[in-house]
Amino acid sequence: MDHPSSTDSSLQMTSNLINDDKRTSADSLHKLVPMLSLCPLQFQNPDCITNDKEDNNPVLMPQIGFGTYKFKKDSGEAEEAVLQALSVGYRHIDTAFVYGGEKTELEVGRALQQAMSDKKSDHDASSSSIGGLKRSDIFVTTKQWRAYHGYEKTKQCLAKSLKRLQLDFVDLYLMHWPGPNPADVRASESEINMPELRAETWRAMEDLYLEGKCRAIGVSNCSIAHLESLKRYCKGKGGCRLWPPAINQIEVHPYNPQTELIQYCQKEGIAVQAYASLGGQDAGKKAWKALGGKLLEREEVQKIAQKHSLTNAQVLLQWAVLQGYGVIPKSSKMNHMVQNLEAVTMTTCLAPARQGDEKDDKETAKGRLDAADMELLKSLDLSQSKDETIRDRVRLCWVRDPLKMLDFE
């Protein structure tokens, strides 16, 4: 399998400096997006195998991707938004089998084909029209849906996704949830062994990786317990071969920083990709009230935004990026797409600025959060609240049934 070359096989990020005089124009923003290096699967575990044991070159993933969750079904919104995102500089598109009533992948596929055509569409003179990109220019992530757990179903799921996307392979394939739909579990006539079912799914993903159907495989919404269970199947006699997963895509934001889980992922060599960086879309009024208001509208966030002439969204995206996480914000407005992209390109290193460092102070003036800002946002952590109701509601994107599913080990 061909991977971009790199001499460092540990989890790291390569950073590009922004222009000292002014922010870059939108059409060249993609050149400034930092890259996350996804470890080759065999590197962390010498006992595991890949199709090339000598291959230490990681897959490079743009640290910011364009999210496609919650576009309206059959509306054409996802297709147009993806074209707009590519036109302003995004080179990473994140989607999933189930998004948009299982229709979003179709729209993403149409957008990708137009973007990779030889020329701009003749009938579209809008600024979102784009053409001439190569397949290697675009990083595509999709996810296996929880109704497709198990070996054969997982392979069927990716086959359907590739057909919708009109692609021969995806760059990253994720296990969307660590278990099936709880209703399916309750309706099952026989007891379901969750760790074994998850391992069967992972074995299918391993084979899809080795067959070249995906350049990297990872997980989403997995806890430490889920990962430890999968690790036992990989490092024991469970039949799995590849460890660690390239990435764990999880809900991460200042209200719920997932510190313990992220420390575990970093120890194992699993990259972290944050969704719901701006605070999530699924929380109701009661949840927001219990948490002290919407994260995007918190006084602390607004204070930092005013200090650096940033938008509130840019503040929250930088909070994640400066800690080395990937982000996948979604927007249907081109100006917001550009602002989100700029939030990432304005970060110039993994760590936040050090207080009292003259060089870092100059960098901060260009629009990057400093150590004091990061400390202020740290104060918003509600995941360790003594109030159990708050601890439960801090998971802004998960409704009750999926939460129950996370109890399966």
From TrEMBL:
<dbReference type="InterPro" id="IPR023210">
    <property type="entry name" value="NADP_OxRdtase_dom"/>
</dbReference>
<protein>
    <recommendedName>
        <fullName>NADP-dependent oxidoreductase domain-containing protein</fullName>
    </recommendedName>
</protein>
<comment type="similarity">
    <text>Belongs to the aldo/keto reductase family.</text>
</comment>
<feature type="domain" description="NADP-dependent oxidoreductase">
    <location>
        <begin position="64"/>
        <end position="344"/>
    </location>
</feature>
<dbReference type="Pfam" id="PF00248">
    <property type="entry name" value="Aldo_ket_red"/>
</dbReference>
<dbReference type="InterPro" id="IPR036812">
    <property type="entry name" value="NAD(P)_OxRdtase_dom_sf"/>
</dbReference>
<keyword id="KW-0560">Oxidoreductase</keyword>
<dbReference type="InterPro" id="IPR020471">
    <property type="entry name" value="AKR"/>
</dbReference>
<dbReference type="GO" id="GO:0016616">
    <property type="term" value="F:oxidoreductase activity, acting on the CH-OH group of donors, NAD or NADP as acceptor"/>
</dbReference>
<keyword id="KW-0521">NADP</keyword>
